[in-house]
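Summary: Need help interpreting a holo structure output

Steps to reproduce:
1. Submit the protein chain below together with the SMILES for zinc ion.
2. Request a joint structure prediction with the ligand placed.
3. Inspect the structure token block that comes back.

Expected: a single structure record containing both the chain and the bound molecule.
Actual: see attached output.

Input attached:
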Amino acid sequence: MSSLVYLHPSLATDYKKTFKEFHDFTLSCGSPMGTILVSSRTICHKCERPLSVEQKKNMVVFYHINLGSYVSCRLTKVCRKCKIYEHYGYWTEKGSRYFDKDSLELKFLLSSEDTAFDICLLRECSSLLMVGAVPFSTYTASYNRRFGYHKGKVIVDKSKPKRMKR
Ligand SMILES: [Zn+2]
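--- attached output ---
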């Protein structure tokens, strides 16, 4: 990291700006890569054969504690013999999902196929919820306000409430 900062001093002074420029550049190229989530596992945990990386990149919406939300991607590794698919923090086998023991020690929690939360953001949110400091809706409103997502128009549905089917 220190040699990277030596080569690109702007990384040390304005990380957010540099990240946004890089993210926006990769997005304009049609392949957002601000953050790439991929399992660190290199061999299959069942047969110990090398895993291969699938070509397809899957889009993921990230919720970062300091950078706000952005679009990026994840990669999948696979053992074709065992039909085990390795993802960032978990693997899938025969339609079931198994989390890695260290999944909560990673930087992000891949909560669905296309959503990733910064673990620090989840810890901060859960801590505030546990002490009853704020309700979840207030926390999300605060997050949206901090990153300027509150400026959009509020859509009010003035149509009559739909009748519920009995
Ligand atoms: Zn295998």
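--- end attachment ---

Reviewer comment: The chain has one domain: 30-147. The radius of gyration is 20 Å.
Status: needs-info
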